[in-house]
Amino acid sequence: MNIIFKADTWQEIYHSLRNNKLRTFLTMIGVGWGMFLFVSLLGAAKGMENGFNKLFSGFATNSIFMWAQNTSIPYEGFPKGRKTDLHLSDIDLLEKKIPEIDYISPQNARGNFGSPPEQMSRNGKTASYTLTGDYPIGNKISEKKLIFGRYINDADVSANKNVAVIGEEIYKNFFDAKKNENPIGKSFNIKGIFFNVIGVFRVKQSGGGGGMNNDKTVFIPLSTFTKMYNDGDKVGFFAVVSKPDADLAKVEESAKNVLKDKYRVSPEDTNAYGSFNLGREFGKLTGFLTGMQLLTIIVGTLTILAGVIAISNILLITVKERTKEIGIRRALGAKPAEVRNQILLESVVITLSSGLLGFIFGILLLMIVSFFTKDQDSFPFYNPTVNYGEVFAAMSVMVLLGLIIGMIPAQRAVRIRPIEALRSE
To answer: Domain MacB-like periplasmic core, which positions (predicted)?
Structure first.
């Protein structure tokens, strides 16, 4: 298409667009708005995805939380309503019977699941907080962001040490946070027992890290916890983490069946053991985000298509207005292909210019939103970006549509006969 490299071609396009400024502007709005929506919505969907990934960072999302409840079916001479329990010995059994399990973290707690919080005190200050007995592996399930010290280790558990990792809210209550007092090695009282602080953690978002941690919780070694409350080897709940390629729903079902078989619970009893499948809920969330991105692509594409169709309609009007001009060009020897290519080139120029402007404004909007949300940990939105490959594909489709739909006014221009054009008013 030698016409592209001719200066006269671009001068004609320029004069054509300049002579119809308002019409050109209104025409460009359609395509520009479509690209703006495409870029901004696609970036917003990615920002939500990044935000939720950040929200769940440090969490083992391929995990199941299990706890014991009451039976609902009589079985082998045992009555309905029998209380079931979880024991530390169950961990080895479950890992042996279910190879898809990666590891299991047990916990005991006071202050959640309906149990009252534990009273704690230091230097005359008294308050009630959640107390949790944990293993070091528990920090892999829900990683704590430590601002002082360290988390519980194996030596703390094996020696039944009176050490504690406290939440930031507890630190602010019992220590001088304004002066950034270092609490490591200092003690406070739980049930008449003094515990030394070995770490302070901060939740990364409001709501206590998605409900799994909060900054009003004290973590102590599970061995120390069971000794304090004489729980023996009873455990409040298990966090079961599967291997990456495992079917989490099957792991959940298999774990319950193993426990039912061990403790002589009816295989049909669905109430004996409760569970929460975090992986399934996380999968629903990621599915929702994928659906949002797909919806964004569809909405943006349809909006761009509508804008391109509007360009075709405007060019049809332009061709009608330029009937005499086109007739003169044909009379002077212009070939039909040259007339057609002229109109097609105008369509592409308007389409591409509109798309680029929409892209630029969309990126600017995402940059502004990113600036105001970058430090908002409580808001599930972070670093809204776009895949430039998807944008390039949208641009290519947009130009292709511009060419295809531009053929309508281009063909109409070609069909204009010079004699009839010269007679037109």
So the answer is: 24-257
